[in-house]
Design brief:
This protein is mainly α and about 250 residues long. It has a single domain (about 1-254), classed as MetI-like fold (Orthogonal Bundle). It has twelve helices and no strands. It has helices spanning about 1-10, 15-55, 60-75, 75-85, 90-95, 100-125, 130-140, 145-160, 160-175, 190-200, 205-235, 245-254. About 30% of the residues are buried. It holds the Pfam family BPD_transp_1.
């Protein structure tokens, strides 16, 4: 019983959790969402560019995309954040006059997610049957139009579950930007929990942070499963044929 009481006091001190939750809700949660959403949008745009470069007919573009992807995917996220934040941070601060590391945190997360999203897009685009491209070219479409209107949309649809999974990973990776020394108003969920835990000497603020992260990631996980199930099942077939289609069919036979 003593061990259970000690564990409860260490991890489930409701008073300590009650002190940190309002700050997490008012400051940490919005900052975490902003970091993940903005980085996800930039990373998606960068990933699409890398995917198109990766399947380009230009050898130089393919090499640039491959080198970038291999490096950013090969480095640990914490190292990438430190290199970008402390390496390029002073240059950006000197150019902009801003002392906030928040933009560098977004830049680091965006560059990392772009490398992974690029591979997701590339695999989705290349999974589309080559006959789709050949058919559109036979109809007179240019290569660019065929990719933009036919191949790329189909490839994106196939990798939607993987994209949502990457966004879930991005939410969790946003907890690493605390190393850049964010200002008090810029701190995300983990940093706030870390500060309260250090001040109180209790680990309950970390448990509160875990609850917030689970509240964000679990619904997205089920959303991924829903998307995957719908895509596997496909569109339900109509039980009765459309009357207009039947009339057209009869006219064609006549």
């Amino acid at each position: 019983m003593d061990i259970l009481n000690q564990l409860a006091e260490t991890f489930f001190d409701w008073e300590a959790m009650g002190e940190v939750i309002p700050k997490m809700f008012a400051v940490g949660l919005p900052n975490t969402i902003v970091l993940a959403v903005v980085s996800g949008i930039i990373g998606t745009a960068l990933g699409m560019l890398l995917a198109l470069m990766g399947i380009s007919r230009n050898a130089a573009a393919r090499w640039v995309a491959r080198i970038y992807t291999d490096i950013l995917r090969g480095l640990p996220p914490v190292l990438t954040i430190l290199v970008i934040g402390f390496g390029f941070g002073p240059i950006i601060r000197e150019l902009t006059g801003s002392t906030s590391p928040y933009p560098m945190a977004i830049a680091a997360l965006s560059l990392m997610s772009g490398a992974y999203i690029g591979e997701i897009f590339r695999s989705g685009i290349q999974s589309v049957d080559k006959g789709q491209l050949e058919a559109t070219r036979a109809l007179g479409f240019s290569y660019g139009s065929s990719m933009r209107l036919v191949v790329v949309p189909q490839g994106i649809r196939r990798v939607l579950p993987a994209l949502v999974n990457q966004f879930i990973a991005l939410i969790k990776e946003s907890s690493l930007v605390f190393m850049l020394g964010l200002l008090a108003s810029e701190r995300e969920i983990f940093q706030i929990g870390k500060d309260f835990a250090a001040n109180s000497g209790n680990l309950s603020p970390y448990v509160a942070a875990a609850i917030f992260y689970l509240a964000l990631t679990i619904p997205l996980t089920h959303f991924v499963n829903f998307i995957d199930a719908r895509m596997r099942a496909g569109r339900p077939e109509k039980k009765e044929p459309d009357e207009a289609a039947a009339v057209v069919g009869k006219g064609a036979q006549a």
